[in-house]
Amino acid sequence: MIQESATARPPEEAMPSSDPEKWVDLHGDALYRFALLRLRDPKLAEDAVQETLLSALQARERFSGQSSERSWLIGILKHKVIDYFRKISRESLIEDATQFEEEIEGVFDESGHWKRDETGPAEWNADPDLILERKEFWIALDRCLSKLPPRMAHVFALREIDGISGEQVCSVLNLSTSNFWVLMHRARMQLRKCLEVHFFGKAPDVGHGAPGGKI
Q1: Over 90: is that where the pLDDT of 48 sits?
Q2: What's the chain's average pLDDT?
Q3: Which of residues 50 and 62 earns the better pLDDT score?
Q4: Residue 212 falls inside a structural domain
Q5: What is the CATH number of the domain that holds 30?
Q6: Domain membership flag for residue 208
Q7: 23-39 vs 42-59: helix axis angle to the nearest 10?
Q8: How far is CA 200 from the centre of its chain?
Q9: Band of pLDDT at residue 203, cut at 50, 70 and 90
Q10: Are residues 113 and 175 in the same domain?
Q11: What's the CA gap between 175 and 182, in Å, rounded?
Q12: What is the three-class DSSP state of 207?
């Protein structure tokens, strides 16, 4: 699971604000970026943030203060995003996974992880924790996610960025297990190729190997 770096977002407020009128100034940008990364549509992201602030206003008396105010608001926003995905999943046709069965055959092990052989990607010789601390990485990831088909981007964001279980992602997006793994595989492959160009500095159409750019 990808954990969004604190350096990729403005720092959270240490103590909750008692004035809801300050929420937009304090947290509006962070909430919008969170929603936009997942929904891929500025209008949908704005609507989700507005619904989040309205729900938070109605529930503010129940806010215990055990987490930061921003974390509390993002938790509400995450539910709004999931509700949206669940709604559109009932209105969309499911992509047929059979056309990709040969492509994913033997690529993942039984737990869904890359096999460490020639079927999987080469290692990036960089510390993942250091990469995730760089704002440039999140800009590149956002750019690369925007190039994916919406359903594929939704699956990847829910599973790898938000850490939602594969079973829950399937439930939210109305996917079969095989369709889920197909979309995850294709998202990983396309994101890897995109990041090698836009973040790691590797020229396109070059075989697997160490990234050409410096981290």
Answers
A1: yes
A2: 75
A3: 50
A4: no
A5: 1.10.1740.10
A6: no
A7: 130
A8: 19
A9: very low
A10: yes
A11: 10
A12: coil
